Amino acid sequence: MSGSNTTDVRDAVVLLHGVALNRWFMHRIACRLEAAGYRTVNISYPSRTVPIERIASEWLPERLSRRGIAAAPRVHFVAHSMGSLLVRHFLEHARPANLGRTVFIAPPSRGAELADEGRPQWLFRSVIGMNLHALGPSEDGFWRTLPPRVDYPLGIIAGTGHGNPFGRKLPDPNDGTVTLESTRLEGTTDSIELPWAHTTLLFHQRTADQALHFLHHGRFDRSDATPDPGRSIY
């Protein structure tokens, strides 16, 4: 997939994964977007080892500048989970003039309850890393530093599949990590629910298709509301 070619005349899409993951988790969506004619900028970031505030204010703007997103006709964003918080910060403090549309997948818009309530905490911290509590709904949650309302075209894809055994006590509906209520964000243009869990949303073709549809049309496709035949909800 394309990287830093500033002479590319295609619209660009920046893809950002969630915490404790890497760019390969966004690979299926990136391939779908590339096939549709977009230049994708799919990058890994140090979600476990660098404070989220530093990633948002220093690391991400510098990397995106290197990739030449300002030279694209338009730049769109597709972000999963923690990546959505980084995009919200970036668009608040360094919004590009060529901003197009944005899609958030399973965003902890008002914090992920599991970050604060998951047990045992030592296990969650060992997997998630230093930003665990910054992703939660508590007073030190990073989402509290962000505007409560967006003023750009935003589509939210939320999951409702319970694939995480640690999320069994979360209020329904939820995706095993984030409740549906916590994904919501004022000013959202459109939202849709898909029957899969927090991370496995990224591996289903319908998620990629819905992201593409929103980038094209500014709304999600509701012409087929049934799950993929033979697919698990997890």
The CATH topology assignment is: Rossmann fold
Cα distance spanning the termini = 28 Å
Kindly provide the name of the CATH class: Alpha Beta
Helix content: 25-40%
Helix/strand order: EHEHEHEHHEHEH
Structure description:
With 234 residues, this protein is α/β, with parallel strands linked by helices. It has helices at residues 27-35, 52-66, 82-93, 113-117, 121-128, 180-183, 205-217; strands at 12-16, 39-43, 75-80, 99-105, 154-159, 190-194. The chain has a 6-stranded parallel sheet with strand order 2-1-3-4-5-6, with helices on both faces. Helix 1 (27-35) packs across helix 7 (205-217) and helix 2 (52-66) packs across helix 3 (82-93).
How would the blueprint of this fold be written?
Layout (H helix, E strand, L loop, with lengths): L11 E5 L10 H9 L3 E5 L8 H15 L8 E6 L1 H12 L5 E7 L7 H5 L3 H8 L25 E6 L20 H4 L6 E5 L10 H13 L17
Parallel strand pairs: 1-2, 1-3, 3-4, 4-5, 5-6
Helix pairs in contact: 1-7, 2-3
Notable features of this structure?
234 residues, alpha/beta, Rossmann fold, globular
Question: What is shown here, in short?
Answer:
The protein has helices at residues 27-35, 52-66, 82-93, 113-117, 121-128, 180-183, 205-217; strands at residues 12-16, 39-43, 75-80, 99-105, 154-159, 190-194. With 234 residues, the protein is an alpha/beta fold. It has a single domain (12-110, 146-217), classed as 3-Layer(aba) Sandwich (Rossmann fold).
